[in-house]
């Protein structure tokens, strides 16, 4: 099956109409039907059921279509990345982040780095995936994480980035938003978001607060759930500063605790490329400065 045939299957699956799909693909309807039949013969099962003028995906066809979408996207990405390198880049550095907020200062780093090494492409990958596993398997060159997580990785070089502190995350209209520094006693009578994706450090702080002050709690399964709950004034949250969203939608009030997070970059110990070490040094310079300026 070639890429054109992939596109034919995807278009018919999305329109469930051979005539419309043929028009969208700029080919004749008989030619499209022939190509779909050829694919079905090659893979050994029917993708579509044809009942009169009605077309629908078979159960096997539905699964095949979903996988085909992913394959086609990955193939297109590979082609585009290859075109990038053939046109202007000789090297690529990939860096993995959990959340888009971690990338807030990255454009400034890339801009300065490009002036130093214009032949090197920086590719940020943003996803709430298991970046430790991705790093172990060599999917990325650099990951942003905390020191306690980085120390779990074998054969890794750990590069200090900045220290991040803990903040009380509240709605701007909340009276707590006016505090210069929040203390456990200030949270009395509130509902605190806990658990979910909280790190061990944050769980210790949550536990300490709950031992000191009587609070209701609400388990937060995801970062998005946390942000929506705070915006809806359903609960408040303790959060590391490295998760700041840099918007006016929330107030990040410094919280009184001795706990903090050592944010680091991690690279493979065997990767001794000069471009990599230069990029890490530039990241350290800029992020350390910004961490102080923006109180991360």
UniProtKB/TrEMBL annotation:
InterPro entries: LysR_HTH_N, LysR_subst-bd, WH-like_DNA-bd_sf, WH_DNA-bd_sf. Residues 1-58 form the HTH lysR-type domain. One of its GO terms (cellular component) is protein-DNA complex. Gene3D superfamilies: 3.40.190.290, Winged helix-like DNA-binding domain superfamily/Winged helix DNA-binding domain. Keywords: DNA-binding, Transcription, Transcription regulation. Pfam families: HTH_1, LysR_substrate. One of its GO terms (molecular function) is DNA binding. Belongs to the LysR transcriptional regulatory family. This is LysR family transcriptional regulator. It comes from Streptococcus merionis. The lineage of its organism: Bacteria, Bacillati, Bacillota, Bacilli, Lactobacillales.
């Amino acid at each position: 099956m070639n890429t054109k045939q992939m596109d034919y299957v995807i278009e018919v699956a999305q329109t469930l109409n051979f005539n419309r799909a043929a028009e969208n693909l700029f080919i004749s309807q008989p030619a499209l039907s022939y190509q779909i039949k050829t694919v079905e013969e090659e893979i050994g099962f029917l993708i579509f059921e044809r009942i009169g003028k009605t077309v629908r995906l078979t159960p096997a066809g539905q699964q095949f279509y979903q996988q085909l979408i992913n394959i086609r996207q990955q193939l297109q990405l590979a082609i585009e990345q290859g075109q990038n390198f053939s046109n202007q880049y000789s090297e690529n550095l990939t860096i993995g982040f959990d959340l888009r907020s971690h990338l807030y200062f990255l454009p400034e780093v890339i801009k300065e780095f490009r002036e130093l090494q214009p032949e090197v492409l920086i590719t940020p990958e943003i996803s709430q995936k298991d970046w430790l596993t991705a790093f172990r398997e060599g999917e990325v060159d650099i990951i942003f994480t905390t020191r306690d997580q980085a120390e779990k990785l074998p054969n890794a070089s750990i590069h200090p980035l900045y220290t991040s502190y803990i903040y009380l995350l509240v709605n701007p209209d909340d009276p707590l938003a006016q505090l210069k520094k929040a203390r456990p006693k200030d949270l009395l009578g509130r509902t605190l978001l806990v658990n979910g994706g909280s790190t061990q450090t944050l769980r210790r702080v949550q536990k300490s607060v709950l031992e000191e002050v009587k609070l209701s709690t609400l388990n937060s399964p995801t970062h998005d759930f946390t942000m929506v709950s705070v915006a809806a004034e359903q609960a408040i949250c303790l959060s590391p500063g490295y998760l700041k969203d840099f918007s006016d939608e929330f107030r990040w009030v410094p919280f009184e605790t001795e706990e903090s997070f050592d944010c680091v970059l991690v690279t493979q110990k065997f990767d001794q490329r000069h471009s990599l070490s230069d990029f890490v040094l530039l990241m350290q310079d800029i992020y350390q400065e910004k961490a102080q300026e923006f109180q991360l």
